[in-house]
Amino acid sequence: MKKLYYITSFLMVSLLLTGFSCDKYAKAGQLAKDFAATVLVAQQLEIQAYNSGYVQPASHVVVQTKFSQLADAGVKLDQAINQAHNAQGAKAQINIAASLLSDLSNNQITGIKDEKTRLAVQAAIVSCQAILDNIAAFAQ
Hints:
It contains 5 helices and no strands.
């Protein structure tokens, strides 16, 4: 439950800090960094579940592949926002990341046997989605 608290706290602080920047690319850029950090938290939670025996090896490989793809989308999202200031490129990466998050949430993490761990990973994924939604709002 502490993990869930930390994730929720991280998300709330991230969302509050976005109000202090005056440039939409700066706001979206900070959110892109928050997205990457939250993806990392979700990935580490799943790895801990695997190491504790709550995730089968085959499921772990699939989930980690999705997290790798999500990380790649996050890097491209960060580049589109912070380097290229390209709203269209950012929107494309947001769509890719949203699809991967949906697949993780609806299909992949269902194999985590421990309910508390599954809920913690789910909370991190929901936080990632909330951050993406905020980035999308700035990209318009």
